[in-house]
C-alpha cells in the first residue's frame, strides 16, 4: 500500500489517508488486528475470517471440533487466491505498520475540531445535525423532526446502531458475494480442466485409431505385395517355358531350312552316280527331321491367369462395418 504517493497526489492528506485505511469488506477503518495477505492487500482479521468461513464452510475455528488441513479464498481487492494453512486466517501475518497508522490517524482526528459541513445537516432544521434514524420511514433525520416535525409518530433509533447494523448487513452481503464468486471461479476452473482433459483424451483416441488403421494399411500392403509377387512368379515361369519352346522350334526350323536347301541342290545334280551317293543319306536326314517336328506345345488356356482372381467383397463389407463400440454416444 503506497501511502506516501497517495497522500501527495491529494489536496487533503487526512481524507486520502482515511481512504487508504478503509477495509474493502466492512467499508470502515481497519479494525485491529489487521492482517496482510500474500498479495500485500490488508483486511480486518474478522472480515478475512468471515469470507474465509463463507468460502470454506466445513472449516471451523480453532475451538471447533471439525478441522481440516487448510483452506483458500480470494482477495476481495485483486482476486488473488490465498491458500491457508491449518491455522486459517490466524496464520496470516499482522500488519503492525497499518495498525500503528490507524492509531495515529484516530488520535489526529480526535484532536481536530469538527469542520462545518463535515456532518450532514437536516433540511427542515438547518442548524440540526442528522443524528437519529426513522425506522418507520427508513430515512435518517434529526431530533427536532422527532420532537416537533414530520416524524413525531414514527419509531426511531440511534443513528449509530442502525449505521452499524446496515454496515454489518452490507459486509455480510459482500462476504456472500465474494464466496459466491469463489465458487463460480472454482466451477470455471473445473470446466477448464474438463475442457483440457477432453482435448487430451480426444487426441489420444485419435492417435490410437490412426495407429490401428496404419496397421491395417501395412497388412494390406504386405498382402498385396505377396500376391503380386506370386502372379509375377507364375508369369515368369510361363514366359520362360514359352521362350524355350520358341527357341527349340527356331533351331528345328533352321535345320529343316538347311535340309531343304541341300535337297534342292541334290535335285539339280545331273549325274546319276553323284546323286545316288548322297541321296539316301539326305532322305534319312529329312525323315529324321520330320520326326523332330513333334516338339512340346502349350496346353489350351495356358496363358490364362484367371485363377489369381480374389473375391474381397465380404472383406470390403467387414471394413465398411467398422465402427466404435456400443458405449459410443
From TrEMBL:
* A single Gene Ontology CC term: Z disc
One GO term in the molecular function aspect is: titin binding
What residues does the B box-type domain cover? 117-159
User: What's the protein here called?
Assistant: Tripartite motif containing 63
Supply the Pfam families for this chain: zf-B_box (PF00643), zf-RING_UBOX (PF13445)
Source taxon at top rank: Eukaryota
Q: What is the lineage of its organism?
A: Eukaryota, Metazoa, Chordata, Craniata, Vertebrata
Q: Where is the signal peptide?
A: none
Asked whether the keyword Membrane is assigned, the reply is no
Residue ranges annotated for the RING-type domain, each copy included: 23-79
Gene3D superfamilies reported for this sequence: 1.20.5.170, Classic Zinc Finger, Zinc/RING finger domain, C3HC4 (zinc finger)
Keywords assigned: Coiled coil, Cytoplasm, Metal-binding, Ubl conjugation pathway, Zinc, Zinc-finger
Coiled-coil positions are 217-252
Report the locations given in the UniProt record.
Cytoplasm, Myofibril, Sarcomere, Z line
InterPro entries named in the record:
Bbox_C, COS_domain, TRIM/RBCC, Znf-RING_euk, Znf_B-box, Znf_RING, Znf_RING/FYVE/PHD, Znf_RING_CS
Q: Which SMART domains match?
A: BBC, BBOX, RING
